[in-house]
Design brief:
The protein is of the alpha+beta class. It has 21 helices and 21 strands. Strands 9, 12, 13, 15, 18, 19 and 21 form a 7-stranded antiparallel sheet that branches. Strands 2-1-7-8 form a 4-stranded mixed sheet, covered by helices on one side. A 4-stranded antiparallel sheet has the order 3-4-5-6, with no helix packed on it.
Length: about 700
């Protein structure tokens, strides 16, 4: 059958493999847990895998609207419970086939291999979203792939002559669509995808006739949509509503306030700003010649990319291209629509554009196809190659970003496990995080470290983290997820009282339980760990089973860190919480709220609120013998005393600063106060007792005056 022709499918599939293979070749199979993945491993080990979530599972309350969302993770854990190798394979496969089925859909419309190959590559490399290459998006990539697969299968089914076989294919397509929606509910917002493709190919009149002549398939797809919408409404109406309802800011004036986000942020990012960011990444971070050469091979290796193939085999190609442009805009809008009622998601580009990128990619293909029908049709392959070069650079940068975060987490786990490779049941670890690494959501914040260690130890373990020089004990306050409210981390302090460790707060002293089972570990600023005192008496023997898991995950045991003996050779320090929208860099220090982003046209910016009286940043440098300058960009404060009483120290030495601008402070100091290696920058100012914040920092720069 035409739809299953091996040669045609390989022709469309092979180009989709190349960019994904290229990215994994650079970063390796190095992606591992970021956030929720450590929770999942813990739950899988102690509650069992969850191919279908039910009310008895601990995560059901948060994920009830998407009962199949853990299926792909459960399967990966079943196939390889001791490493993330299968997870990496599944991520690569999901992304590859997402591009492949997008290529099949464009091939259905235009019967043109150049456009089809370009579409497949573009959907894979589209730069709007910044979390495609991460396990947090594995289930979303899978849902997008299943959505495209089911839509193409529905379209291809209409060409079958055997009615019974055709009906079976329609039923299968509707079932796969349902699985996509139950894996990630945003797939439901693109329910109209196959109908828009029919409209693109045939127009309104002929398209309606096509749907009418395939009434059984149309009714099955619409029935699946109605049932899925009904289920979603019912589930959201349940008492808890789950994570999705909690993320929504539902109010009477909700749409009045947020409807503009669809255009000013969502559509703008998907169609314009993503390309702007990708262009900056392309020119600033990668070898241009190699990037162009690699992507040129994706095209030039196929005989179909020739001058004579640059014409669309369609009776009215311009009309089809214009209809694809309109359909792409509709799909972009509906792909982003679910996020406009959650300000928390509006200010992110992580996972929020994976479905919108499908429509945006079709918009780009429509523009390329229009160029192919003009006298300057040579611009079509140039445009396609240019977009794919920018997209490849953006996707490679994000892959490197998440691989780097995974490596930092791997180093932290490795250091802790090196000094305490196995523990007894009921052991509790008191971890002194001297540089504040573990206060960032990207660095095993809150229970993620505990769940990760429980996974490695193969037994539940309790971990208490005391961060920074003040031994802060963080306690997460869940956000209201609205711009006028403040989510923050309320803190108490770790102290020893009556020879017992515990927390001290306004409520008094609360000792940690089971003091006789404590292990004390110091995590130093250079990410090395050591046991404190004689707490090693509580360590257990490392069994072969646990050693096997350590070897599987780390590759070898003891683990050899890639960045060991790295010498700091820079004489300056610059920290801006993130250079690219939502690809934030964890602050090395304590007393900072999680990094926030504000969309601002072409230049969104990141910042962090100071949430403790004494907040600090650790930094490494090799100071020169010259005078130094400190520049701090402050974008806001909650009350005047926060800036009037602000004091700044470098390695406990106060620095005198001035205000050249209302949002910029500057201080000059002698290099003698700097250390060769680790340094500590401290900001001291009062904190608002109601909001829990003080000043908001955007950027810190320390450099010699030249």
């Amino acid at each position: 059958m035409q739809m299953f022709r091996l040669q045609n499918n390989l022709l469309l599939l092979t180009p989709c493999v190349l960019p994904v293979l290229g990215i994994f070749y650079v970063v390796g199979f190095s992606f591992s847990g970021m956030m929720e993945e450590w929770d999942l491993l813990h739950y899988f080990d102690y509650y069992g895998r969850a191919f279908v979530l039910n009310s008895e599972h601990p995560l059901y309350g948060d994920q009830m609207i998407r009962p199949l969302t853990l299926s792909i993770f459960s399967l990966a854990h079943y196939l390889d419970p001791n490493s993330f190798i299968v997870w990496n394979l599944f991520l690569a496969i999901a992304i590859i086939f997402k591009g492949f089925f997008a290529a099949k859909i464009i091939d259905f419309i235009f019967k043109n291999k150049f456009l089809s190959i370009a579409a497949g590559l573009l959907i894979i490399l589209y730069p709007a979203d910044t979390m495609q290459f991460s396990f947090r998006s594995l289930n979303i990539n899978l849902a997008a792939t299943l959505l495209l697969f089911s839509s193409w299968l529905w379209l291809a089914s209409s060409k079958q002559n055997r009615k019974l076989f055709q009906l079976a294919l329609y039923l299968l397509a509707a079932s796969i669509f349902a699985i996509a929606c139950l894996t990630y509910e945003n797939a439901l917002f693109l329910w109209m995808l196959p109908f828009l493709i029919i409209y693109t190919k045939c127009g309104i009149k002929e398209g309606f006739q096509h749907l009418k002549s395939n009434a059984a398939g149309t009714m099955l797809w619409l029935l699946a949509t109605v049932l899925l919408v009904s289920r979603m409404i019912y589930t959201l109406g349940e008492s808890s509503g789950g994570y999705q309802l909690g993320a929504m800011n539902l109010s009477a004036g909700m749409f009045e306030k947020y409807y503009s986000y669809l255009v000013t942020i969502g559509m703008f990012r998907a169609l314009i700003h993503g390309w702007f960011d990708a262009a900056l990444m392309f020119f600033k971070n990668f070898n241009i010649i190699l990037t162009i050469f690699f992507l040129a091979l994706c095209f030039l290796s196929y005989k179909y990319v020739k001058q004579e193939t640059l014409c669309i085999q369609n009776k009215k190609p311009i009309a089809s291209s214009l209809r694809l442009l309109l359909s792409g805009l509709v799909l972009t809008a509906f792909g982003y629509l679910p996020f406009i009622i959650s300000y928390y998601h509006v200010v992110l580009t992580q996972r929020t554009y994976l479905f919108a990128s499908i429509g945006a990619g079709f918009v780009c293909i429509a523009l390329i196809s229009l160029f192919m029908q003009t006298k300057v049709r040579l611009l079509a392959p140039i445009m396609a190659l240019g977009m794919l070069s920018l997209g490849y650079s953006a996707q490679l940068l994000q892959a490197k970003h998440y691989a780097s975060l995974a490596e930092q987490q791997r180093n932290i786990f490795a250091e802790i496990l090196t000094v305490a490779p196995a523990v007894n049941d009921g052991t509790q670890i008191i971890l002194f995080d001297h540089a504040g690494y573990l206060t960032s959501k990207w660095m095993l914040q809150n229970q993620r470290l505990q769940h990760g260690l429980s996974y490695f130890y193969k037994t539940p373990v309790t971990v208490y983290v005391c961060s920074g020089p003040t031994l802060t004990f963080p306690r997460l306050i869940f956000p209201q997820l609205a711009p006028e409210n403040y989510d923050y981390v309320a803190n108490s302090m770790c102290i020893m009282q009556d020879e017992k460790w515990g927390t001290s707060s306004e409520a008094g002293f609360s000792p940690f339980p089971n003091q006789e089972k404590h292990i004390f570990i110091d995590l130093h600023p250079d990410i090395t760990a050591s046991l404190r005192d004689d707490s090693g008496n509580n360590l257990a023997a490392l069994t072969d089973e646990k050693l096997s898991r350590l070897i599987s995950f780390f590759g070898s045991w003891p683990y050899t860190r890639e960045n060991d003996n790295k010498i700091t050779d820079t004489d300056s320090f610059s920290f801006a919480f993130g250079d690219w929208w939502s690809l934030e860099v964890p602050a090395t220090g304590t007393g900072w709220r999680q990094v926030e982003w504000r969309p601002n046209g072409f230049t969104p910016y990141s910042f962090s609120w100071k949430i403790q009286e004494h907040s600090n940043l650790h930094f490494n440098l090799k100071p020169s013998n010259e005078q130094y300058v400190l520049r701090v960009k402050i974008i806001g404060w909650t009350f005047e005393d926060a800036v009037d009483e602000l004091e700044i120290y470098i390695n406990d030495t106060p620095v005198i600063y001035t205000w050249p601008d209302i949002h910029l402070l500057e201080a000059q100091f002698d290099s003698s106060i700097l250390n060769d290696g680790d340094n500590n920058l401290i900001f001291s100012s009062p904190v608002d007792s109601i909001m829990g914040v003080s000043i908001a920092l955007e950027e810190v720069v320390i450099e010699p005056i030249k």
